[in-house]
Design a protein that fits this description.
- By secondary structure, the chain is of the alpha/beta class.
- It has one domain: Transcription Regulator spoIIAA (2-Layer Sandwich), CATH 3.30.750.
- The protein contains three helices and nine strands.
- The radius of gyration is 15 Å and the shape is globular.
- The N terminus is likely disordered.
Length: 152
C-alpha cells in the first residue's frame, strides 16, 4: 500500500474533531470522519499521476454544492488526471454536482485519465444513470481497487 499524503484546507479542520497537529502537508495522520457542518470536502492525494480521492460529506445540496464542484475543477486545473469521489459517507448529491462529475469524467477520459465513484450508494448510481451518464465513470467498492493505470 502506498503512503498517502493528506492535504487539508485549514478551514476544513475542527480542532475539537482531531488530536493531530496539522501542517500544510502531513504524511501520516488519522483522518476523522467528514464533519457534517464542514463547508468543503477533504482531499486525499496520492501521486498526481495516480488517483486523487475527494472525501464527500453526507449531503451535498444547493447550499454547499459549489465547494465540491470547485474542488473538482481545481484538481483538474492542477493537472490531476485521475479523480475519485469517496461516497461512503454520502447520502445525497445535487443535480449540478452529478452534471459536474459527468463533465469532469468526459474531460478526463479525453485526456487519458479517469474518474471514479468509491462506495457509491445504489440510489446515487441510479441518479447518475438517470440525470447524467456512467459512460466514463468507474464505480468501485473500495479505494484500493483503483489502480494507477486504470482509465475509462
Amino acid at each position: 500500500m502506498s503512503l498517502l499524503n493528506y492535504h487539508f484546507l485549514m478551514s476544513e479542520l475542527n480542532p475539537l474533531e482531531s488530536e493531530t497537529v496539522v501542517s500544510e502537508t502531513v504524511t501520516e495522520v488519522v483522518v476523522p470522519a467528514p464533519v457534517a457542518a464542514s463547508p468543503l470536502p477533504l482531499t486525499t492525494q496520492m501521486n498526481p499521476q495516480e488517483w486523487t480521492i475527494v472525501l464527500v460529506k453526507s449531503r451535498v445540496d444547493s447550499f454547499n454544492q459549489e465547494a465540491l464542484i470547485q474542488e473538482i475543477k481545481d484538481l483538474r486545473a492542477a493537472g490531476h488526471k485521475r479523480i475519485a469521489l469517496d461516497l461512503k459517507a454520502n447520502r445525497f448529491l445535487s443535480f449540478p454536482v452529478i452534471l459536474a462529475c459527468v463533465d469532469a469524467a468526459r474531460e478526463l477520459a479525453e485526456a487519458d485519465g479517469g474518474f471514479a465513484l468509491v462506495a457509491c450508494p445504489q440510489k446515487t448510481k441510479r441518479h447518475f444513470e438517470i440525470y447524467g451518464s456512467l459512460k466514463h465513470i468507474k464505480i468501485v467498492r473500495f479505494a484500493e481497487e483503483l489502480t494507477p493505470k486504470w482509465t475509462t
